[in-house]
Design a protein that fits this description.
The structure holds two protein chains of two kinds. By secondary structure, chain A is α/β, with parallel strands linked by helices. Chain A has two domains: 37-133 and 261-317, Periplasmic binding protein-like II (D-Maltodextrin-Binding Protein, domain 2), CATH 3.40.190; 135-259 and 330-342, D-Maltodextrin-Binding Protein, domain 2 (3-Layer(aba) Sandwich). Helices cover 40% and strands 16% of the residues of chain A. Chain B has a single domain, classed as MetI-like (MetI-like fold), CATH 1.10.3720. The radius of gyration of chain B is 25 Å and the shape is globular. Classes of the chains: A alpha/beta, B mainly alpha. At the A-B interface, helix 2, strand 1, strand 2, helix 4 and helix 8 of A face helix 13, helix 16, helix 18, helix 19 and helix 21 of B.
Chain lengths: 349, 542
């Protein structure tokens, strides 16, 4: 081996060859035709998805390979469209699912059990459907503000009385975008633009994510914040800083109702393991698995007949905004443009 | 008659060949390189070109109204933000890097040997981990405010100053390492000559040492500046909007075309920086004749010893001790809560695999490019070199998407393997290997090449048997640096990895983004520990 150690170039070349061989041998996932596996891309937090996928593996014996890529999963699916690698896409944002459908990348089927999901919460061709509700609520710190004082409607956030007292997420956040799409549906572009400008001035903080908001409200940095409902359930379960309450806004007669987005799944067209994908979707529509989908994240199932966690309000308990979810896809691009024009897209403070 | 016709046909082909070889010769100013060398250089630049071709493709199909809309609205403001933080960080990093390298490599600060490798540690921390550490200590609800009362924190992390401090603390080692290496090999004769002509230490520093260090400072500055240009994690955490934030906004809206247009601006900026640096350097030559090399003795600082030590300790506290202490604290919590599970070692192996492969590839690929640029300066070698560096400031997501597009459609057997991740790392970090190797190569006079040619070696043998041993410390150091950068890379890894393949950096991000710090810290600490060995190895040779 003398010649190897004497000449560093040869040594490095030898190492390279070794690593290369190791690599080629190791990750040789042959995506052939319907081998006993299922490829799932997910943009949800992986902790919320892994238990569900493990249950599927145990129930059916099909191995699941999961890629948790956050928001990038959609871009990857689009770029892979000429040589599809994924079977199923699990998303925490209906806009993403509808966007994929509008790009022609999804496939719809007649599915057993699909009627348990209200038509408002699925695609026109059933290529995607929502399984859990992400309702927009106010989470508030009970030590700083009482239930009577807190604003009861979304429009009230524009009131200068609330200057600096609440936190919202940045305009890039999927939940925020969906919410503003709903506002545009309800009020039209002009009034929504006014709302965005006013809230942008009024907000005490514009944070990266809802997790930051719920922790900040719990710790007493702000009186209340605009989050999705399950963040309230999560903060309640924290060991400290958990004296928080929740308000579902716009519940009065004539008011628009609470805005709902959803987390759901989609079937990708031309996928490598099409049959297994179908098995997965129909398995997912079974009641105990619908519950499992929402359970770890403490979201509320979109199917009101499925039981939710303890203190959570079922979707039939409160007034829901009447926009069908697939509209989120159509509104998506223009909403983002509106947010950009108002300057909320990049604001972070 | 037939003879004449044949002669004429031959002469037509002959004349064409003459023309081509004449053009080739003129392109290289009469000194064309070995064909093999050129080919390798071209292949490297082709590889580097992949993300740029993706950007160009997407930008060109975007339509002019999209261009106008993007370039009108907030780009000027974002550009201003980005350029100011880049310049400021580079300047501060140069001051820190040069002063510390001088103190630690040339003067008799106590504990010199220790400081020489400790100040490389900040490079091994994922910079967003560093940012989280600063927020935890100096932030509005951080430790300082909690123990000493609200408003006690001397630093507002969420400000330009805060971002500048955090970025500088984690980027200055780029300058420190390369300047330190140059200082170690500085020939004593230059300083002795200066002394004999009447300059004191301070004068020698300004008139002799600093100019000699110019290539090293330039290399370190470029690495720092381009690193800051593409930085996203830290600036997002500290709520400072830069250009890359706009790119990520477009990506979040699945608008790859707008993101590509903005990335094109980043590429232009990169090329601009590179051009400025090389134009500045063009006329200067920095060869050292190693035949009469004598190592310089450490300068005795006398009364300046204590202030120097205090300066070193301050930087050590902020850039090394603070983040490591936070990491240790949370790791202890994590181990207590059972964070080190079975998968942990799998993630470690994955990390080492992809980063190691990338480092080795970079060592091989950096040499042809810089050799071409240094020994055969021409338009073409300059083009190859610029192309190879242009991927450095591109956001990782763009590099990833470009690779997905090319490999999924045209080279599918390599797609969805970890090999692709390594290629992404090579595209992103080859410039680091290039800069470090180049700093070494620029100290070797071309006379040595010519002497070797004179003694009968062909050009390829000259490289392998003469040049490589001479600059192998620089090559290895570059490779070590690539390893350290690759093992903490996040955005490209996140997007490119095959399902089920996680690296340590991915795990850190997944846990930290949900503020589950006791799970994130052990992985981050392991990243530091795994990087320690290659870096120390490279530093001792360098």
């Amino acid at each position: 081996m003398h010649f190897l150690t004497k000449n560093p170039v040869l040594l490095i070349a030898a190492l390279l060859v070794l690593l290369f061989i190791a690599g080629c041998g190791g990750s040789d996932e042959s995506i052939g035709s319907d081998s006993g596996e299922l490829i799932v891309y997910s943009s949800r937090n992986e902790n919320f998805v892994n238990d569900l996928l493990a249950k599927f593996e145990a129930d059916t014996g099909i191995t699941v390979q999961a890629l948790h890529a956050g928001g990038g999963a959609v871009n990857r699916i689009v770029e892979e469209s000429h040589n599809v690698q994924a079977d199923i896409f699990i998303s925490n944002d209906i806009s993403a699912l509808e966007y994929l459908r509008m790009e022609g990348l999804l496939e719809g089927f007649e599915l057993a059990g699909i009627e348990t999901i209200d038509q408002r919460y699925r695609a026109v061709d059933n290529s995607w459907f929502a399984l859990s509700a992400r309702t927009r609520v106010f989470i508030y710190n009970k030590d700083l503000i009482s239930e009577a004082e807190i604003p009861q409607a979304i429009w009230e956030l524009t009131d200068p009385v609330w200057q600096g007292q609440f936190a919202i997420t940045r305009g890039e956040n999927a939940g925020m975008i969906a919410h503003i799409s709903a506002l545009r549906y309800e009020w039209g572009d002009e009034q929504t633009a006014q709302w965005i400008s006013a809230v942008r001035e009024n907000a005490g903080a514009i944070m990266e994510g809802h997790g930051d908001i719920r922790r900040a409200v719990g710790a007493g940095e702000f009186a209340f914040g605009l989050v999705n409902n399950y963040y309230y359930h999560q903060q309640l379960r924290e060991p400290t800083n958990n004296n928080v309450g929740v308000i579902y806004p716009d519940q009065g007669p004539g008011q628009m109702g609470a805005v709902v987005n959803g987390a759901g799944v989609a079937m990708i067209k031309n996928s490598p393991n099409r049959n297994n994908a179908r098995i997965f979707i129909e398995w997912l529509l079974l009641p105990e698995n619908q519950r499992e989908f929402s359970y770890s994240s403490m979201e509320v199932p979109i199917n009101p007949n499925i039981e939710a966690i303890g203190e959570a309000a079922a979707i039939s308990d409160y007034k829901v905004h009447d926009m069908p979810l697939y509209q989120l896809g159509e509104y998506f691009l223009d909403t983002r443009r509106l947010i950009e024009e108002a300057g909320l897209d990049l604001d972070l403070r | 008659m037939r003879m004449n016709q044949e002669e004429q046909c031959d002469s037509v082909q002959y004349r064409i060949m003459l023309k081509i070889s004449g053009f080739w010769s003129r392109l290289w100013k009469g000194n064309p390189p070995d064909l093999a060398l050129t080919l390798v250089g071209l292949i490297v630049s082709l590889l580097m070109f992949i993300p740029i071709s993706y950007v160009i493709l997407q930008s060109v199909t975007a339509g002019s109204d999209r261009w106008l809309r993007l370039l009108d609205t907030r780009i000027p403001g974002l550009l201003y933000n980005t350029l100011t933080i880049t310049f400021a960080t580079t300047l501060v990093s140069i001051v820190l890097g040069v002063s510390l390298a001088w103190l630690v490599y040339r003067c008799n600060i106590p504990g010199r040997k220790l400081w020489q490798w400790i100040f490389a540690l900040p490079l091994m921390l994922p910079s967003y981990v560093g940012a989280v550490a600063y927020i935890m200590v100096f932030g509005p609800t951080g430790w300082i405010n909690q123990t000493l009362g609200a408003g006690a924190s001397p630093l507002n992390v969420y400000s330009f100053g805060g971002v500048l401090l955090v970025l500088s603390m984690f980027k200055f080692p780029y300058v420190f390492l390369v300047v330190g290496a140059s200082l170690r090999r500085l020939n004593r004769s230059h300083e002795d000559t200066a002394r004999s002509l009447g300059l004191n230490t301070w004068g020698t520093f300004w008139k002799v040492n600093l100019p000699l260090l110019r290539p090293a400072i330039g290399a370190g500055a470029i690495l720092t500046a381009l690193c800051v240009l593409s930085e996203f994690g830290v600036v997002a955490l500290l709520r400072y909007n830069t250009f890359t934030a706009a790119i990520y906004y477009q990506m979040a809206g699945f608008d790859r075309q707008s993101a590509s247009i903005l990335s094109a601006v980043l590429i232009v900026l990169t090329l601009l920086f590179l051009w400025i640096e090389s134009a500045n350097r063009r006329k200067q030559r920095f060869y050292q004749i190693s035949g009469t090399y004598r190592a310089a003795e450490p300068i005795d600082l006398k009364s300046w010893r204590l202030p120097g030590l205090i300066w070193v300790l301050c930087v050590f506290l902020l850039s090394v001790l603070l983040p490591l202490a936070i990491l240790f604290y949370w790791t202890v919590q994590g181990v207590r809560l059972g964070a080190i599970g079975g998968n942990f070692w799998g993630y470690t192996v994955n990390s080492i695999q992809v980063a190691g492969l990338a480092a080795l590839i970079c060592i091989f690929l950096a040499l042809p490019v810089i050799y071409l640029r240094s020994r055969y300066p021409s338009v073409m070698s300059s083009l190859i070199s610029k192309l190879s560096s242009s991927g450095y400031s591109l956001p990782g997501v763009i590099v990833a998407l470009g690779l997905i597009y090319i490999f999924n459609n045209y080279i599918p057997w390599l797609y969805n393997t970890f090999f692709l991740i390594s290629i992404a790392y090579v595209i992103r970090f080859l410039p680091q290997a290039m800069q470090y190797s180049d700093a070494s190569l620029s100290q070797i006079s071309p006379r040595i090449d010519e002497a070797a040619r004179n003694l009968g070696l062909n050009p390829l043998k000259v490289i392998i048997r003469v040049i490589v041993p001479l600059i192998s410390p620089g090559l290895l150091a570059g490779g070590g640096l690539v390893f350290v950068s690759a093992i903490k890379e996040l955005p490209a890894t996140l997007l490119l990895r095959p399902p089920g393949f996680d690296t340590l950096a991915v795990r850190v991000w997944v846990e930290a983004s949900e503020a589950v710090y006791h799970m994130a810290a052990p992985a981050a600490l392991l990243v530091v520990l795994v990087s320690l060995f290659p870096l120390k190895l490279m530093l001792s040779k360098y």
